[in-house]
Amino acid sequence: MSGLIIDSEACIGCGRCVRACASDGIVVKGERPNRCARVTDGCILCGGCVDACPVNAISIERDEAAGAVDLDAYRDIWVFVQTDEHDAVAPVAYELMGKGRELADARGCRLVALVGMSPEGSLGDLEHLVCAGADEVLACRDERLRQNDAEVYAHLICDLVAERKPEAILYGATAFGRELAPGVAVRLQTGLTADCTVLSMDAETGLLQQTRPAFGGNLMATIICPNHRPQMATVRSGIFKAPDFDYGRSGTITQISLADDAKARVEISIPAEEWGQQASIADAERLVVVGRGIGSKKNLPLMRRLAEALGAELGCTRPVVEAGWLEYRHQIGQTGVSVSPKLLVSIGVSGAIQHLAGIGGAECIIAINEDPDAPIFGTAQYKVVGDAVEVVEELLAQLER
């Protein structure tokens, strides 16, 4: 039986364990000499109190047998392929296929794509997944998968994991992926690392190394899941490059079925096209990205003119959104969207690490900033030191000629 164990004879009732606990999982009760720590229902077995105890009166007993997993039984890298209401594959899925192929080759195993779609879904996209690197495509065509319902998809994935035992599953960090992946992780009692920027295989242990920004983006943390399977991670769009299709590749397309008891608890009655949703800037091939360095909100029309002249979308940094100059959907970076345009013109952006994490996929960056030491210049291919407004006005004049 696992749980927190307190040695009442060794405990001195000092209360350091209480101060170390962030979940109200332990209290100190009684009067001396019988004052002693007690476990509450809030305990999550984090071990903070164990480290804080000066007399080693607290320990954690874990039932290893109950949670033991036969790691050798798990094999293959899986990519969850998200589709839209028209059964089209999301761009991030192809990006994950490219990275998944690298990981599978390093691990010496197969790459499997898992895709759900409506009964009318086209087989053409399934063949493209093979061309993108899949050795096998598990395709489930079912009316219940017409909408992206996390509960239905979690049912499908968990049943397949129990049957086929993949060692790792990659998800796109879309709105749906961020809803689905945690639900699967809880049901399977395994780990999940969100918003990864680097994925690699440890040659010695065979573990998936999942790297993501931590502590506000001030450092990069590499996370592993050594004792549970499957290892799971979400990755934002634009982090990895989509692979070139190899139309000579061969692979297997396997039709699978969804269990009869998998049902959605929420019914969507309004089609997505009626919601008035706008295209995400994550899909833009050209972007003009502005920061606080443009001076004020009154300079935004000038920046929009430049975007229109370049056939680009307008993006921004977090401070611009917080100042109320633009809406959140324009925000790029760790707390916004990740982008991978062919051209990105950065104007008045200093280049904090949180922002740079979102533009790593850009093919060409032109940076304009009056600070010659701005971090953005370390990423840009073309660098212009000068007043943002003056440079943009001159650039517009050149373009309009």
From TrEMBL:
Free-text comment on the cofactor: Binds 1 FAD per dimer.
Cell membrane found in the keyword field: no
Gene Ontology BP, a term: fatty acid beta-oxidation using acyl-CoA dehydrogenase
All copies of domain 4Fe-4S ferredoxin-type, residue ranges: 2-31, 34-63
MF terms (GO), sorted A to Z: electron transfer activity; flavin adenine dinucleotide binding; iron-sulfur cluster binding; metal ion binding
Pfam families xref list: ETF, ETF_alpha, Fer4_7
Keywords: FAD, Flavoprotein, Iron, Iron-sulfur, Metal-binding
Keyword Hydrolase: no
PROSITE patterns: 4FE4S_FER_1 (PS00198), 4FE4S_FER_2 (PS51379)
Recorded superkingdom: Bacteria
UniProt: FAD binding residues: 292, 317-318, 331-335, 348-355, 369
Cofactor(s) listed in the protein's UniProt record: FAD
Assembly and oligomerization: Heterodimer of an alpha and a beta subunit.
Summary of the function given for this chain in its UniProt record: The electron transfer flavoprotein serves as a specific electron acceptor for other dehydrogenases. It transfers the electrons to the main respiratory chain via ETF-ubiquinone oxidoreductase (ETF dehydrogenase).
Family stated for the protein in its record: Belongs to the ETF alpha-subunit/FixB family.
Designated name of the protein: Electron transfer flavoprotein FAD-binding domain protein
